[in-house]
Amino acid sequence: MATPGRRSSTFSQLLRHGFTDPSAAGRLLEAPELSGVRGDPLLLEALGATADPDLALKGLVRLLEAQPERTDRVRLLDTLLAAKPLRDRLLGVLGASEALGDHLARHPHDWQSLVTYEPRDLHQGVPEFEEGLAEARDPVELRVAYRRCLLSIAARDVCGTIDVAETAGELADLATATLRAALALAEAAAPEDAGLCRLAVIAMGKCGGHELNYVSDVDVIFVAEPERDADERQALQAATRLASHLMRICSETTVEGSIWPVDANLRPEGRNGPLVRTLNSHVAYYQRWAKTWEFQALLKARPVAGDRELGAAYMAALQPMVWQAAERENFVADVQQMRRRVVAGIPAAELERELKLGPGGLRDVEFAVQLLQLVHGRADTSLRSGTTLDALKALATGGYVGREDAAGLEAAYRFLRETEHRIQLYRLRRTHLMPEDEGDLRRLGRSLGLRAEPVTELRKEWRKHSSVVRRLHEKLFYRPLLNAVAQLAPGEARLRPEAARERLVALGYADPAGALRHLEALSAGVSRKASIQRTLLPVLLGWFADSADPDAGLLNFRKVSDALGATPWYLRLLRDEGAAAENLARVLSAGRFAPDLLLRAPEAVALLGDGEGEGGRGVGGGLEPRSRQRLEQEILAAVNRAGTAEQAVYAARGVRRRELFRTAAADIVGSYGTETQPAEADRGALVDRVGGAVSDLTAATLAGTLRAVVRERWGDELPTRFAVIGMGRFGGHELGYGSDADVLFVHEPREGVDEAEAGQAANAVVSEMRRLLQLPSTDPPLIVDADLRPEGRTGPLVRTLASYAAYYRRWALTWESHALLRAEPVAGDEELGRRFLELVDPLRYPSGGLGEDAVRDVRRLKARMESERLPRGADPTLHTKLGRGGLTDVEWTVQLTQLRHAAEVPGLRTTRTREALSAARDAGLMSEQDAAVLDEAWVLATRVRNAVMLVRGRAGDTFPTDVREMAAVGRYLGYGPGRAGDMIDAYRRTTRRARAVVERLFYDSAG
């Protein structure tokens, strides 16, 4: 029995050597099997060098206990202490793999396979593995032999004799040898089937790419032909039986476990198609039916077993089709959609732990490399490698990828693959998840050489490499494009013009020749301007390609650059202010509206910089909307400086154009997000910001126009007090980019002025304001609509306050009380505007609520509008204004609630839809859930209308039919390429729920 002092000394020694449970380790060292070596420093040092010393010691004791004779134990221990290569290999495996420790305990003589240390042992290939499997006579023996070979690979892997790429290659070679052995067993079991057919096994996926994991499905495709004069149908049946038997030999679980599943689902038609086809059948399928991802999968195809001549014929027939895949319509979008589908299928709880499929994971590297191979491999055969790292090296050598980018991706890929290998090696289970247990993380970190703080260092390295992949995997396309039209330093590889055009087409550019001309024009020469452009363009190209119309983005950028290239601040702004370049790229490629505004006055690009809001430099101030007070001050100052009313309104409309651009740019950037700032999560806040900004701007423009008209004809004072009352979305602070300004005009003769004279003056003001705001100009017109006035289009454009009072007292209809809910003074005499509201408040907030007859009137009017005003042929599920669950549904539901309850609930006395909705919820007039459903639908419909205007440059209430325009609307709403269908489904789902609430609250509710 050990003394206390010795126990304490051993305990400390074990701690120093990395044991986490020194007490248990001490007990294991007391085992009789270790009696002769327990104090040997070489043993403790070797155990301490493993990934998990506790696991290694436990495995060693189990292996010694399993030795059948004492002499076997002595021989193992003597060899272990005498031969450092064996000591490092055996203990390294035992400390990294519990599963291989179990194998050694079941097969105690297999440790001897690790003793050999000859040159041929350092890098084994298919012949060596075939030799290692040659004695297997049945599936059980094949499993044992397979694990013995796997033991050899793992030993050299954990000791660093082979790197991660060589390990993956050897695992693929072992799989090749295993498939050959399994096929031989299947043929031996059914020689008559083997005599009827020629069968070839084509490896796909990681096995085909010579980059297999420790535990992975082995993807295959089977192709067969009749042997000599055999009947084709019988030959295919025989080949199918052989293929099925091969799969069972590898996949089925026996007393020795399984080898790995053989997966044939990458075959034509997947699991629904025949397991085995003839070569002609394969060719016919790929020519007529194959999808883009199936050609991408064929990048990895490699014959590995069976009839070599048939395997070579398969490759010769199908490989040319692979290199034509990039010519398919929506090729890049298809590949990217496949990647998104993979990510979407990951459970949310596992997404951040996914080494392979998650963002910044292995699949990102593989997809980026494969996409570039498919784009450029047709013309450059050096790129046609199925192995990711080899292909990445070839892409860098050919100038298709920047060398630094390639080096960063290679380092990240190697780290992620090695991490994945070590995770799988522990229990030989198929997983790609980073472990959560602290002990597992410690073992994993130590196995990767991170010894000081293994868990902390592991997490740090993972974050670093994952970040590199996220940053680079989609940008590999863009930087080399510039080199195709630029002067390069000696030794630098140039992207050939043909390759540049191929890449631009693949990225979504419809006119690659035009794009190259723009690049050359922007970056040619040795000037400082060209130098800055060469720095900016690779990044800008990536942002343009992220949009639905890259050509428009690049063309607009050239136009802006041509207009501002001589100014000293333009390129400096884009280069030095982090947000400006990305903001500009987003705005220029997001549609027509914002670029059109910018190109009319390119100096507004200054707004895209890192502004300081209201306190920003000059009139810039960044993208924060300016207050109505400041807008009015600027517009009125411009009006006062102008010589004529036309010149004054021209200046006011110029301010409006600039501020519309500011608002649109902020909306686009907030909706798209940037690399440093994610998209605005609160979509309602985006809608409120646009509605408030455009409404304030419209009010300030009307105020300036009113001042200009009055000053030119009457001087400082009009003979009648005059006010403009905002109505509809204008009064509700909810104007969109393409909205008309709904208004009422009210006046009151000044003391001593004849009413007829006052009326003539007021009508003259209205007519002149409307004319000036619609004059042909480079600035967008402002349509002033007064159709909500008493008597509609047949009534006078402007009335006195007394006339309004008389009309509303005698003739007011329910719809007019309804419309007045949105009334708010926006320009002119403030006192008159206030008195107008005092006049209409009893109408819009009736004491005691709305009578049942009036409620029925509102409902009838709404029903008639639904049946009569929806445009012919319009889809009622997609019309944002009049369609099911659209703006009108939500607004009328809210407004009916206001008419009924605003007299008693002060919070409902607002012109704003969302504020009234919140007040109704807070007052218990609708449930929180109903309010949330209506709010979501209203915000979404408003955003769709805004998006349509931004994209098309003209207003619309339905989704566009043009494919690119639809994609641009989707991008604004947060849907990536190829997801227009998802966008439409989400819109219909959201508005369908809203309509159900409207049916209950608007049509059925009695209170």
Question: How does this model look, in words?
Answer:
By secondary structure, the chain is mainly α. The chain is built from 45 helices and 10 strands. Strand 7, helix 36 (755-773) and strand 8 form a beta-alpha-beta unit. The longest helix is centred in the C-terminal third of the chain and has 32 residues, at 683-714. It starts with a helix and ends with a helix. Residues 1-5, 486-492 and 612-620 have low confidence and may be disordered.
Query: Over the alpha carbons, how many angstroms does the gyration radius reach?
Result: 38 Å
- Give the CA-CA distance, first to last residue: 89 Å
Q: Calculate the mean pLDDT score and round it.
A: 89
Judged by helices, strands and strand pairing, the structural class is mainly alpha
Question: Which stretches of 5+ consecutive residues score pLDDT under 50?
Answer: 1-5, 486-492, 612-620
- Give the strand content: 5-15%
Share of helix, binned: 55-70%
Oligomeric composition of the shown chains? single chain
Number of strands: 10
- DSSP helical segment count: 45
Shape: elongated
Q: Major sheet, described briefly?
A: 5 strands, mixed
